[in-house]
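Re: folding output
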Amino acid sequence: MSTLNRLRRLGVCMLLLVWVAPVAAEIEEIVVTARKTEESLSESPVAVSVLDGEFFSDGGINTINELVRFVPGLDLTPINTTRATGPKVRGISTFSFSDGFESSVATVVDGVVMGREAQGFFDLYGIESVEILKGPQGTLFGKNASAGVINVRTLAPEFEHGGGVDLTYGSFDEVLARGTVTGGLIEDTLAYRLSGSINQHDGKIDNVLPGEDDINDKDTWSLRGKLLFTPNDNFQATLITDYVEEDNRCCLPTYRVIGPPTPAVLFALNSPVLQLADALAALGIEGGEDNRDVAVADSRILQESEAYGTSLQMDFGTSWGEVTSITAWRRWEIDEFNEADGLSNSDVNNRNGTRSDSTQFSQELRLSGQINNNIDFVSGIFYFNQELDAFGRVDVEFALPFPPFFNVSTAVDRRVENESAAVFGEFTFNVSEDFSLIVGARYTWEDVEADYSRVASPIGPGFFASNFGPDLAGSQQVDDTDVSGRVIARYFWNDNFMTYLTWSQGYKGPGIDVAESANAGFLAEPGGLPVLDPEVPTLYELGAKFRLLDNTLSLNTAVFYQTVEDLQAIATDQFGIGRNLSIDEILSTGVEADLIWVPAGIEGLTVTAGLGYLDTNIEDFSDRPDLEDKRFRDVPRWTYSLSGDYRWAIGSGGYHAFVRGEVVGQSRKNTNLDDDPTADVDGYTLVNLRLGISSPEERYRLTLMVDNLTDEDYPHFVFGSSYAALDNTTRAQFLGDPVTYALQLAVKF
């Protein structure tokens, strides 16, 4: 079935569901913090998608990777390192392996901005809600929110004792245990919440080497503690401490397209080196779109990480308004390497790896309140400091007796320190009961310093040559200031219909290239390391939020036009050299819609849907003018989801049964900047199913979960591998999961 036909069927289903809707119970109001103050979703003049804790538990969602299927405009590029996970909002992201660049999408957990976005991409548990803010959000969320924000809010402590636990066992020997407990320690004064998670499963990519474990497994555990202190009505403080540890054999792709024999292999001085087709045939692996086989020794793949930190949020009332202070300290350590050529029986490129640790401190102080009963405001100051030390190594064992020689181990030591400060404010002028004008601005100062040392050395006897140019050492410093902001006009046509019009300009500071591939020949200024200019997005957006059918149908839509100047990205230049470059201008236009429907005529049914259309193109690219007017990589035009959750009573004892179906998918995309046909990813539709039964008041719940019910083979991302450097044809792929089954028992107390 074509993607167009899938979209047509989805649209028909949505129209029929609305057409048959009778008078129904009202949809519960959703509270968001998209403007750093609590307001209802239907009144917030921001394009934001919200998934609450119930959606996570009912859908069995545990990671950001699963979340993206249900949010129009949000996507994630899974690659072979968690240091650069590449979250995208409306097709925009900073996709780079360099620790000197920040993400374009800010990840915020309980009010704390994560300096490296992967710190916030661990298991989601004990969730109050996750808000996806789309478009530049720098006015209130800072310099690394130039494309959007993933705002995670975890459950707060409660004074009434309670909690819950769920246990899951499923395919690939998945064992998932999550729990939370809360209660008061001192009546109405001190309360706690303790939440934890253990998540383990075997590898989902088959390892054909005898005696070796399957690849892309998971072994992680996490713990979070919260204390809430409320000595009086004007003050409360929340102390949060968390710890996460991972030990995985992750993340490897499989071979999709096998290139022709390479003459250079015949002259290889090291052993063993095989033609790719011969190496795969010797292992019984067939390349292709459904290939789920690799052959890698356990000793050649590793991903270990620790993330931990603490934060203190204090809220207290004053005559000027409410003051909020958030002080946070975090540390993240990761050690990862993998067999870059994906084969242990052919030594072409056996190791790409990095050890990295970063420490960050942040302080936010803001004041929110009201002036003369018709001006609402949020203003504050923000300080951030992050120090990162990393050691990376790339080994290319392939050795030739003639140029380019190869036979080289490249080792890079690097240090990056990022310090920034900002003053921000946003004022809502309530001109009348129906019309508001919102004006916000942010002044940002940023200083980035980097030290870098790269040394290439031979692996075996004979000549060698660096893959990335000569040995390089440098110390680079760059600072910048910026004024960004937004203007929003909001109008309430009636109690159930609101529209808004937005102009917004964001900012993400300059980046210093400290990747192994940093090339001194491309220096923007003295110091020894390349510098990329700041990233500046500009957004024009028209949004509408509806409450229809006696408040039983909620529909939120947005139409947008967004440009990004100097998008920081990885690309090949006109000489075919892969490096970090600035794309002079990207244009992203599209339409998004979120729907919730609760019909009374079918008591117990809830329908949610999302639909997005996105057109993202390269408008100006001085380093690659041949790519101008072409689509940006890895961005499908259409994304869609439809979920139906139906619950009914069993007898009169308070027991209920439920069924939940999910249909999610996307249209065709190409994951190569040059639009290479071998990097085409066909459109696909996934079907998930949940069946279960619950006791009175849902004290106990048993759920059967099936993901990818039709066992669809689909890749997330297609790219060139180590062998592609030899034959310019070979392609590898990161595959989505096959059909999986799981049984979950949840208990509340």
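--- second protein (sequence, then structure) ---
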Amino acid sequence: MGTTRGFNRRQLIGGAAAATAFAVGNQTGFAAGGGRGYAPALLRSQGANIPTPREQTVVIEASQTTVYDSFNPYIPNGWAYNWGNEVIALEYPFYLNLETGETVKGIGEKWTYNADFTEVTLTLRPGITWSDGQPLTSADVVFTVEMLGKHEGLSSHENVNRDVAKIEAVDELNAKYTLKKPNPRYHYAFVAGVIGTDLKVVPKHIWEKQDPLTFKNAPPVWSGAYMLDHANATQKMYVWKKNPNYWDKANFDPKPTYVLFLEALPVDAAVQEFLRGGMDSTAIDYLNQQVVLQQDQGAIQYFFADPNPRGLTINMAAPSGLFKHKEAAWALSYLLDREKIGKTIWQPETPPAMYPWASYASNKRWEVPEIQQKYNLTYDPDKAAQLLDSIGARREGDTRTFEGKEININMITPAKNTQAEYQIGDTLIREAKKIGLNITMRYLQTWIDAWETGQCDVSCHWLHSPVRDPNEMYGDFLTEKIRPVGTRALDGNETRTNVQELNDISLKLATLSPTDDANLPEFAKGLEQFMQWLPYVPIIQTTYPFMFGTKYWTGWPTNDNRYTVAANWWSQFRFVIGKLQPAGS
């Protein structure tokens, strides 16, 4: 329901499944392994044909998967969520559009709480049907939640048992949750934020006859605008075909007849495939996108901020003892030239982070300009030196000492796919040395172990930033979550932050509705406490570049028309598919 802890946002599901081709959707006449009677496709790097009319097909380059015969979202390696399952087949009750701040209806009409937030009712939209024509009702919601509560091996099992005392169908459209304790945020289980969310409603009339721990759900039955035509491990493709009987066709009627997800090619082959019109949405990296733009004037490059800015996390219980003083975290902050880092290290160029969250329109609600100016994240080495002096970390010759010992700050950074974080850390080391502050950095394959057990003073990586409201982050700093250095912190507060005021405001915010404007002053108090102590030091936004082709389809998001999230592995990408128009090629 929030962001993923400790892992890069683009580490996508691989999984282990069929080693041979598998085709589902018998109504289409696809043959197992070949699809529409085709022989196995040529290697795509040699210019493979696709088994559908190109002008009717959106082709999306996806990350690697081995899951071609399973479509169960609740078991390990049970589905390839980013191959269309979560994008155009399954429908969530609601979708948070981070780019606009809107909450968009899926199968849900509304949610309502009782006065003390101990009950929440999910109301479905009328007339929903599954892809097999059966109605989708509150009975399916109740069945799904009860199924998750009964089976320990299913994902979301722990969340349901932690939060839900009872669920019941009030009528065909309303499912009422009785919660174990007041929770004004339980509706986050209904709203897809980053990629998706907890509640993936399954059809009772199918799943009640199966063991959900082993059921492959093949062919999958969902309520979305597309049905699986076939999945083929040999050709490394999923083919989705538009459902002619889609229940919400009057409001959501995508123009592509087919959507193909194909495994990503080696970069050189991907560039050539994109240039010749073989794919519409590609995973080509930024530098190679620049090559494409020189040859294809119609290509669209779109810059998207990852939910997690890059920054430092500060271990208040670090062995150096320095970071029990908030001035020490601020000293590191003043040594960071965010403008320079964003322009010279990150590619594409990315702006500084002025708040501990991504620069989405949906996060504007939590910004407080007066607090941001009061705690401005600027580059000021002289101020850094003054702050260190003020807490007794004084310079003696070329180094500084603190409490009678020479300071040597131990910084770590993850070794996997994080060259930029290492370069940011190296920049900090060089700036610190100028004011007599020694920092050493370890580039760790086992970074997560060192970070969670507190075996460092500082870590340079991605921040665990909030997506829906700031208390998703402030709750990480509760004092009850503090574990001794050397003991793994598994439920948050890896920074060992021990600030009673931040703890208390987080506990209060947990009882307040984030959708009620009357509570915004309390959220501002949380931001003030966070900025005073800087347990996370925001550095830069994390900008990723996406690229879309216009040879066959137009209507893609652009940097001037950011109408929805443009990541093709997020569930919100359904709205991109819904906006596309034939280019007439």
